[in-house]
Amino acid sequence: MEDAGGAEQRWLQAARAFVCETLCPAGLGGGGGSEQLAESVLRCLRSAWGSCAARGSGELPLGYSFISVSDLQCQQRTPCCSHLTWSTNEFRQWAHQSEILSKHSILPRAHLILIGYLTDGRLQEGKEKRRDGNLYVQDSTGSVPCEFLHFESEWLELLFLFPNWAYIPQTSQGSAGYVEILADPVPVYPRPERVVNTVPVFYPAQAAQLLSIRAQYKERTKLNVAGELARLSTLLCIHHKTFFFLFLKCFTSAACVPVLVQKPHQLSWHHMLKLGHRYVLTALCVSGLKASGHKVFVSSFSSCILPYCAERVKEQPLEITWQEGSVQPVSPEASLHLSSRVDLTGEKWLVPAKESKILSYVGVITQVLNAQASLYELDKKVCLCLAYQQLSNSARGLRPGACVELRDIHLLQSPLASFPFVLVLGTCLQSTILLKGFSRLNTFHEPVASSGNLYMQLLFRYNLGLPLYLWLVNMLEILEQRFCCFIGRRRLLIHSVPQGPGVAEKFLVPILNAVVPSKEQVRDVHHEILAEMHHCPLQQYQPLAPPCQAPPLSLLRSMAEQRSWDVFNPSQLLPPLEAQHMGTQELNRRLAWSYETFSAESFQPRMVLLGVLRASSRNSSLQLRDKSDSIPCVISCRGGSPFTDTALIGSLLQVETYQLVVERNLKSDFPSWEQLLTLEHMRGKETRLYAQFFFEDVQILYTPEMKVQGGPTHSDSPSVGKKDVCSSKTELGSPEVKVPKLEGTSRGASTDKSFDRGQRSARGASCVSRLFLVTQKEGLTFRNYLPAAEGGGGQELRLSFQATVLWMGKPQLWGHPKEKGTMPELEQTNDQRGDSEAQQRVLLLFVGRSLGWFPFLHPDGLYWLIVPQCSDFGVFEQPGLSPLQDKLLQQPCRTSCLLVSDTWRFQHETWISCLPQCQMAPGSVLAGMGQTVYSIPELLSNSFTASLVSFSGEVVERTLCASSGNEKTLAPCSMRRQKGSLLPWDHSVKLSVSAAPGSSVVLDVYIAVAYLEHLWGLLPGAKILFQNLQRKISRFHNVYCTYIPSSCISILAPPAPGRLLSSNPAGTASNTPAAISPTLVFLSHLLLQPHSLSQGQTVCHLSCVLALSLQWVCSICSSIFREGRCSRHSPPCPSRTGVSQASAKVLVEDGTGEALVLCKNQQVAAALGLSPVEWKAVQSNVQGRGSVVIQHGGASARPGCVEEPEDLVTYYLRSLCRSRAISRPVLLTFSLNRKPSKIPQPDSLQLRRFLSGEVEFMSRVGARLSLTCLNIQEADPKVLCCLSSKRIKTPISHSA
């Protein structure tokens, strides 16, 4: 008992000390000295503690401790509740009743005692009390906001004990929370009773007439109005003035009058007013609002609010108040009616608009969808939008588990197609939100920011409707989800600041300017609240199709890949007339690669591409990245130069004009074209996705922080030069780290031991840099760059590339990597100074993370090489680390090697062609240093002798070719080990490259499949710069080029959108001029320059058919297919599928010369003049015997060819070949047959025999050309004459 008594005494001492320290200095309530105040507090505590039936009267809560307001805010980091008057069973029963959301726990119980003064303003140091309409619990240590379910105005400025309360901190760390008062507070001192005398009042029906009187009066009369509270607006703060409206309704009619309350000390009325209760408001004045012209009652400084009691009011006659001016009767429509609905018959909508329904709703908040956007979920099925109201209390109390009652709220059904909720409730300024019950769940408070809230700023700036606002919220949430980890939430969502708008605002404002009509009016708050005919942004709405979308890159990837395979149909990829004649190998090879392209408009809604630009060292490509995924990208410049802007690394880019390319690789075993619809023959498939766009179509939403300092500190640095404007059309700041960091690269110093000397002398952020010119760049391949000592027994092959550069000027020392380097003047040189220090040729070796610089380095470009945290100029002269170093030093150019460290940086300065003349001194070594780019006609010339060539052109066609058995593979063995590719490594891709759009001069480029992993954008229609390709001449005198390890490819321009044929697996640009209108020529002109023309067209006369062959072959082994099975016996072929093949050799002439034309398959039917039905019948008859061969005789007959025995089919075909119907004018599209035996010399003559009646004579004539038919068209003679006339008048240019 002594211990218990001692504990009680210690508790009492602590209680009295707490009261003296926290309550007495506040001086807000009455009560005398500190001792008297402490006794009153203890008396109140005993009374409240003893109110529980399980406890005895007069006891003290020894298990509880006092807590001040400051300690509550600073020390309590998690939500808690305190129930002083409850027993343990009562608390358990209370907790058991709140099992709505199973994922949240119940508020933990804390044994704390909260005592303080209840005020309506926050007390600031040295200033007066600031009233904002909120309630606070205050003591001498501070004040904390509080929320009530029941409040009375008499409680203000009194000292209370709060027996049941909950403290809810904010979600952000270190932010104070607020207090939820769960039960009525207990006053420490008895409250004085208010004595109310009889009050003369007007009822709303009479008061409404006073608002309509237009007569002037001398004195400002104050009057009292009694009525039922019909509507209560939210607290509004406009232009730093806080106010609210209430509407008093007549007891016997629907008339009601508005009352404006704006006096600071009366704002607390908002907490005590209850809808449906009756009140008397005293000392009201009539006033007109300047903004809207409405007349309302306004509370005066002496106004007060009283509960209505019929015995204490007296109705006042109208004439007593207004002596001047006649009182005019007012129609019922003159007063406000709550049931009035707006009829917007004059509003014109582009499409029929829906009208929202106004209703009341009671529900429980189950989730806070977006606190800043004021979006909540009710009852797990309805979305509540409070954005169109101001939440002056920062949405305190609106937590999951709280019960709310909504009056006069708008119901909208499916306002946005992509929004997950079908039903959306929206509150306007006439709606009322009532908090019916606090949440019992252990959740934090998510406050709504009143300033800097981009959601609210854009909503009110554009007066958005709810569908467009929901789309806006969705876009901001996606941006935050995708890019907060790169940019930070503040930079992303911040509203306009002196430095400019934030990232999200830059992205959304142009879209809103285009979507929102310019005639939208500014929202009129007073009119929305007071107008007789209700009008608000929620009244009418149009279900919105989102203007655009910007999903995460992972979702974009899956959407594009899924759509590419959804539209994939093998039967539609190949022309049916060609596919039916293909064998199994050719058929599946033609299907092995195809591609699909998507633009922004290919998606609904329109797809906007957003991503942070990064340089990947894994695949040595540029990438657009967000939190979910990354997509490789190919960036080109419209001027024709490669993309080199290293300052954009780390920048957030927006692209609306782009091509999203999905390359499909398919492994299949289709027996023939008839089974193309049977998808079970598809054995494997994979995709490769990337984006292509022009740099000029990029909108930069964010760049890392920029900082430019002075020039270099090197005392011997050359004079300052100017950077020419050709280097960049747009001034782009350098990022926070001067030349941005590559993917996966740390900012630390280099780990190489040879850098120690420089590192010790470079404490701080100093760095050295040196300017260089790229003279040659080699492609990505596996090379050996490891030192012999580290390589062990065998040298490791690693993916790498190398660039030959020329040092320009001496090294420079920068004080910080953020400094801007100066452009040195290029020194003069002569033969004796070729090996000087200032200008020396170096081979830069890139391995590992430095591979990320591959997309930025291009020949003829001037770059800075920056070594951070180093001041040793010798870092650029390290001994080579490659086993090739000794071999390279033996070369005449004496090229040294320099292995690029992962921490080194590069910055593009300009192009050599953009340097001003003053920058290039006479006799500079740059004279003639520009890379030689040949034209395709030059490469096709017989006099051309170079083996390594560079050229540019447009891809006309891309095909997958199988390497012949006697040809050596084009790719090194180390490149064949790539994983995940379904394309066979021993195949190659043939690119047919034209010299210019519309030119028929074409050069074939062969690239081994093993190299394709690191090559992007090789599509028909793309303009490509090929560098260091090997020029070869085939045994048929065909000139072609092959891609070798030292080769490199740069995409100068992606295919034009109108020139893509994405469904063609052969990769033919459908609208290329070369494919549509080949050059119209005479046959005699083909003998002049046979190599300069790849395809041509001629108007000629088909003389006769010299040879014809029709046969059915096995689709697998190509043996004769007869009577439904393959004829091969050793070994037997199990194939049951055959394909028809036909060939014919016809003779044509155009008056200037004649040629032998080889036709195949469908071209044979066109040459014979057979219709599709007749051709099908011929093929069916040939199928029974397997083959039919016909020789028409003459010198062109093949030696050793034996015709089949005569039958009905053979007789028909022989008669057809000899008939006059064959001889007719045609329009022939052809290509040259370049076999050596088929290319006659211009001066070669052959002895020919001619018959004229019965006379036979011999003559020497020019050799016949051998052509391959591409197409035969029947044409009207008039059309042919017109074409012939055009051909004669048009000069023929073989170099075009």
Automatic annotation (TrEMBL):
InterPro entries per the UniProt record, alphabetical: CTC1, CTC1-like
Record's keyword annotation contains Nucleus: yes
Chain intervals for the UniProt region annotation (Disordered): 709-759
UniProt keyword Oxidoreductase, yes or no: no
Major localization class: nucleus
Organism: Pelusios castaneus (West African mud turtle)
UniProt record similarity statement: Belongs to the CTC1 family.
GO molecular function: single-stranded DNA binding; telomeric DNA binding
Keywords: Chromosome, DNA-binding, Nucleus, Telomere
UniProt protein name: CST complex subunit CTC1
Location in or out of the cell: Chromosome, Telomere; Nucleus
Any single biological process term in GO: telomere maintenance via telomere lengthening
GO cellular component entries: CST complex
UniProt superkingdom: Eukaryota
